[in-house]
Write a structure and sequence with these properties.
173 residues; 25% strand; alpha+beta; single chain
């Protein structure tokens, strides 16, 4: 039983950290530390991903289109890069977007985000942090009320951290 709980804890903690890092922490850090540019969408970079609808169904390939943008960097050079995130409805060709970027980054960091998805993602990572903390408290002999309060604090820490990142991105935008 302890091995099962440990594997579950590792999985949920990994999910929380990967989602928070990818969608909140890294974007906020890049938004603050990199130069901001206005870029024009010039095309799309097509990637194929394997996905499935249900856990019992087989995998199928799905096409995902990442907008490619063109901008002039601080050195006056024209740069063409794909954005790091896409949407169900990608921006139209010719649309101007706010981005941040450095020469060493593989993809440009899109600042204009879908705020509803960011809020949903923040709530989701807060919930996963709550359950990760709750599972972790079962390794010690604590009362259930104390386990829930510890878990709420853990969820609150992740939620506030992600909220601060969203706020920083909003202020940069």
């Amino acid at each position: 039983m302890l091995i099962f709980i440990s594997l579950l804890i590792i999985t949920v903690n990994s999910l929380t950290l990967v989602l928070s890092y990818s969608f909140f922490w890294e974007k906020a850090y890049r938004g603050i530390s990199e130069k901001q540019y206005e870029a024009v969408v010039i095309g799309y970079k097509k990637e194929t991903i394997a996905t499935r609808n249900f856990s019992t169904s087989g995998y199928y390939n799905k096409q995902v289109y990442f907008p490619e943008v063109k901008y002039i960097n601080v050195n006056g050079k024209e740069v063409i890069k794909a954005l790091d995130l896409t949407d169900n409805i990608p921006p139209a060709i010719g649309q101007t977007l706010k981005i941040t970027d450095t020469e060493v980054s593989e993809k440009a960091n899109r600042i204009e985000l879908n705020w509803i998805m960011m809020a949903f993602g923040s709530v989701f990572t807060g919930l996963t942090a709550f359950f990760a903390c709750l599972l972790t408290t079962y390794l010690r002999n604590e009362a259930f009320k104390k386990r829930v309060s510890i878990s709420l604090y853990g969820a609150l820490v992740i939620w506030v951290l992600n909220g601060v990142c969203i706020l920083l991105m909003w202020l940069k935008y």
